[in-house]
């Protein structure tokens, strides 16, 4: 199970799963053939001038690049952090948790809408970032009040894990194979079922515990480490999907989809680190 943001969009999906050639790949092949024909009409001087010219940007080619994804991910992350800071600092204390709940609900709805849209909507994706920022601002304030310093610890842990996953993926030491994907699918389904059972026990007040009976004490630590590992594996899948999109020459607008997918995974990872560190400090 990969990130649904990427899995629900055919252009980021593994062509082997589609059962037919990717349309973007077909278009790329056509472009290459056309370029080969056109090149025959240039002389040596013209070709040398073209070779020494600056690389074409995504605006000129109309295709997604890594720079596009980085810029839009940074912009979206800035929106999340800005709204989180406003919720934490500006909003009255009594309103922070209600705002966090509202932000979580709106973020969930917008997350589902953006995940299943075939063509990305920058406005809806930015609204998602704002809603998630409000949610994270309120929930981070609550955790910080209970365990001072925990937010900085969770942020550092999230950024460090992100950097480690990126380095491992770029080095080729971690590759997305069918076995890796199958393992992640089974692990994600198991974790979702486990979390649902824990929530039901909390609703019926069975077992107690700050985060539910199945997320407390030694078991909570083990589950927390497992959840962080799942989030890290999901990041690897996200990087692979983005790499596939760039190599297939997808439209530049899908850099918004890639940025959205990365933010979804990072928010999940941050929340898991918050909970894990809180259990450890208890």
From TrEMBL:
Keywords: Membrane, Transmembrane, Transmembrane helix. The keyword Membrane applies. The chain crosses the membrane at residues 73-91, 97-116, 123-143, 149-171, 183-204, 216-237, 249-271. InterPro entries: BaxI_1-like. The keyword Membrane applies. This is Bax inhibitor-1/YccA family protein.
């Amino acid at each position: 199970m990969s990130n649904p943001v990427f899995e629900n969009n055919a252009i980021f999906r593994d062509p082997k799963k589609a059962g037919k050639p990717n349309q973007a790949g077909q278009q790329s092949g056509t472009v290459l053939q056309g370029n080969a024909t056109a090149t025959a009409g240039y002389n040596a001087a013209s070709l040398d001038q073209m070779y020494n010219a600056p690389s074409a940007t995504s605006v000129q080619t109309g295709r997604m690049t890594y720079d596009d994804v980085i810029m839009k991910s940074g912009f979206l992350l800035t929106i999340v952090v800005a709204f989180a800071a406003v919720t934490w600092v500006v909003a009255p204390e009594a309103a922070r948790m209600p705002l966090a709940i509202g932000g979580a609900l709106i973020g969930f709805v917008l997350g589902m809408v953006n995940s299943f849209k075939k063509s990305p909507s920058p406005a809806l994706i930015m609204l998602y970032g704002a809603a998630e920022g409000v949610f994270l601002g309120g929930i981070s304030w609550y955790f910080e009040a209970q365990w001072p310093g925990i937010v900085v610890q969770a942020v550092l842990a999230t950024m460090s894990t992100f950097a480690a996953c990126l380095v491992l993926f770029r080095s080729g030491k971690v590759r997305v194979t069918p076995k890796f994907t199958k393992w992640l699918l089974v692990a994600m389904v198991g974790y979702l079922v486990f979390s649902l059972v824990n929530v039901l026990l909390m609703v019926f007040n069975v077992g107690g515990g700050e985060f539910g009976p199945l997320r407390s004490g030694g078991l909570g630590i083990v589950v927390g480490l497992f959840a962080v590992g799942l989030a890290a594996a999901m990041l690897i899948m996200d990087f692979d999907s983005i790499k596939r999109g760039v190599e297939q020459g997808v439209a530049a607008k899908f850099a918004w989809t890639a940025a959205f997918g990365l933010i979804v995974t990072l928010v999940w990872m941050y929340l898991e680190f918050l909970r894990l560190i809180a259990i450890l400090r208890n």
